[in-house]
Write a structure and sequence with these properties.
Blueprint: E1 11-16, H1 17-23, H2 30-45, H3 57-68, E2 72-77, H4 81-85, H5 89-103, H6 108-111, E3 112-117, H7 154-163, H8 168-171
Parallel strand pairs: 1-2, 2-3
Length: 172
């Protein structure tokens, strides 16, 4: 449920995974490309907070939270793009570990205020253990309490069916 007390309280990191894949020189390095790109922006916003040596993105965000006190909202669009477009099990594993460190690690509890991800594939087990089982899933066919915020409500569909003389059950 939306709460005004959280409005403008967190920095937002938006990652369009499809964009990163399209702009990465080598798909095998997409996690490093994402990490370096976000860290470059974080260094501009929080000068002197992050070390120059290579650290993970979750370590960077944790460090910022511990030094500056800032938590983050992470929005990932097309989260499943790597999984859908690669047969490379090592790459998929590395990517899932990256997501795990952002959303499910002990470190993430320190810096993460909210995570919102979009994709075609349902969030489920990949491999032998669950990589991302902490999300609540909403879909177009089962939007739950978010129905009024996106897509069409039943009332809106009913009005449109009347207007265009369509069968409500078929349209639904």
């Amino acid at each position: 449920v939306y709460k005004r007390q959280h409005l403008n309280k967190y920095d937002v990191i938006h990652l369009d995974i499809q964009w990163f894949l399209a702009n990465c020189d080598n798909v095998d390095n997409v996690v490093a490309f994402i990490t370096k790109s976000v860290q470059a922006e974080l260094r501009e916003i929080y000068p002197g907070v992050l070390p120059e040596e290579e650290i993970s993105l979750s370590e960077s965000l944790s460090r910022i939270k511990n030094i500056v006190g800032q938590k983050f909202i992470i929005i990932i669009d097309e989260w499943d793009c790597v999984i859908r477009n690669s047969d490379d099990k090592e790459l998929v594993h590395k990517y899932l570990q990256f997501l795990h460190s952002l959303f499910k690690s002990e470190e993430s509890k320190v810096f993460l205020a909210l995570a919102y991800i979009t994709g075609i594939l349902p969030i489920k087990k990949y491999g032998t253990h669950s990589a991302l089982n902490m999300f609540t899933e909403y879909s177009m066919t089962d939007p739950g309490e978010l129905a009024e915020y996106f897509g069409f409500t039943e009332q809106e569909v009913s009005v449109l069916c009347e207007k265009y003389e369509m069968n409500f059950e078929d349209a639904k």
